[in-house]
Amino acid sequence: MLSWATETLLVDGRAQSDVRQGVTLEVMGEGFSMGPLTDAMKEELAAASLFGIEAEWTTLGEYLECLERRGVAPNVASFVGSATVREHEIGADDRPPTADELERMQALVRNAMREGAVGLAAALVYAPAFYAATDELVALARAAGEAGGMYISHLRSEGNALLEALEEFLTVVVEAGIRGEIYHLKASGRPNWHKLDRVIARVEDARRTGLRITADMYTYTAGATGLDGAMPPWVQAGGLEAWRARLRDTEIRTRVEEEMTTETDDWENMFMLAGPENIRLLAFKNERLRALTGRTLAEVAAERQISAAQAAMDLVVEDGTRVAAAYFTMSEENLRRELTLPWVSFCSDSPAPAAEGVFLEWSTHPRAYGSFARLLGKYVRDEQLIPLEEAIRRLTSLPAENLAIADRGLLAPGRFADVVVFDPDAVQDHATYDDPHCYATGVTHVAVNGTLVLRDGEHTGALPGRVVRGPGYSPERP
Question: What integer pLDDT is reported at residue 476 of this predicted model?
Answer without folding.
Answer: 77
